[in-house]
Amino acid sequence: MRRPTVWTFPGCWVAIIKPLAEAAIPVFVASTSDADLVLVPLEKKQQAVIALEEAGHQVERGDGKAGAPFRSQR
Question: Are 60 and 52 in contact (CB under 8 A)?
């Protein structure tokens, strides 16, 4: 997830996690000073992309290789 300049607005994680939860996609969430990560199982990647796009997120897809990262921005 691309971090906005000011990371203070509430509900940011909910906007990402909720559509994935509603699609029954398990997630692992990690946050550092440099990045916020939402990891999904590889076999659920396409389903996760669809769920996020249907929720209004713009998804930048990886290079198509197994395990390639993708980014979501809303």
Answer: no
Residue 67, by phi and psi: left (phi above 0), alpha (psi -120 to 50) or beta? left
Q: In angstroms, rounded to a whole number, what is the distance separating the alpha carbons of residues 42 and 40?
A: 6
Structure tokens at 69: 């990262």
Strand, coil or helix: 1: coil
Per-residue pLDDT at 10: 62
Averaged pLDDT, 1-7: 52
Instruction: Report yes or no: 15 and 1 within 8 Å, Cβ to Cβ.
Output: no
Q: CB of 42 within 8 A of CB of 28?
A: no
Amino acid letter, 56: G
CA 57 – CA 12 distance, rounded (Å): 12
Residue with tokens 């906007």: 15
Q: What is the mean pLDDT of the chain?
A: 79
